[in-house]
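Quick one: structure tokens for this chain, please?
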Amino acid sequence: MTSTPPFYSFVIPTRDRHDVLGPAIQTILAQTRDNFELVVMDNYSTPETRQVVDAFASPRIRYVRAPERLSMLDNWEFALDHVKGDYVHYLGDDDGMFPDSVEIATHLHGQYPGLSLTWQSVHYFWPDCIIPSHRGLGQMRVGRVVEIRDSRWALGEAYSGRLHQADLPTIVFSFVPRSVIEQARKKYGRYFWFRAPDVSSAIVNAINSEFYLYSYRPLGINGASKHSNGASHMYAHINDEAYKKWLADAKIASTDKPLDDRLDGGFITEVGIVDELFWLQNKFKPEIGDIPVEMRDFLKWIVQAAPRYFARFDEVVAAVETMARRNGVDMRDIPIPAKVPPAEKQDFTFGTDDRTGTVSYSYYTNTNHVRTVADFAEEAGRHCVPVSQLLIQDRRPEAATKRTPTLGTRLRSFLGR
């Protein structure tokens, strides 16, 4: 007897970005399997957004419009009331999916049902991206290994500064079981928290699941168009328009001063991410527990942003020095990158990782032919291995010896039960 395959919900939250929304939808409707739906969560946009959706005339698309303009966090939360899938994935309106993402997820969830499936993403910079040196650039990381990871181990690595938060089961790079999402909403009153829904979902999913799958074979594409909030924050010195809109919608006056006293230099994107992680650690302390924070490794990561903020290079280094003093870190352990002007073009890069079967490289697309994320998905998808070549690796045994106990676990151990 053939079992029914799991059903997948894609969610695209959007607001007045109809010029990029169409190609993002196109990548989802191009799936090689049909066990999915798409929810377009319109945050009170002008009529053009609805017109783009209606033009597809697809029964797989459900259009939902917010009753009023919401913050990003609340718009994302509102969308959860409308998903029907067994697994849920959110993508930005300038992001995309590879055509076989549902096919691969269906295959893996057939073997490991109920686990989040996270993937390393590739990056595509639209021709209108605000960063001149990145326009038309593709950054590829294409592997074949799928790891079974211990969520507790991953949390420990993230708070030690050794694992990027995007490598946790964040909903923007994962298919997350809806059961985990609903469990969190019932437990906490909502699913998305603080400022950045991608970061908060990574932590919430990790503390509410024992294991998750991590695929070095990418399933989705992280796009950066002129509308990108992330690019506008990271390159605010070039164009901060999208970032300012995000601040206004979130009713945040400024993020220049971090909330956590251990941090300094809130204008640095990486500091904002660490501030988010620290806030979430405090919010969910009973479940996260006393995971040690390794500030040295965080500072090594943060200081690498200095060349990106070239005009403020010395300010970035000064902020890192301030944080080192506050946290007892020896600056001799923090390598300072060279202060060189940004290149007009990115260098070609190439690297390999035999353990995960990953090849990493960057290249400039031909913008006469690759004009949108849908064009890039079609082109770059040919660089990826098919589902038949995936290799499963179980990393749970090695993580068991490094697992950081929660406060509850430690208390039960102390009490002898």
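The mean pLDDT is 93.
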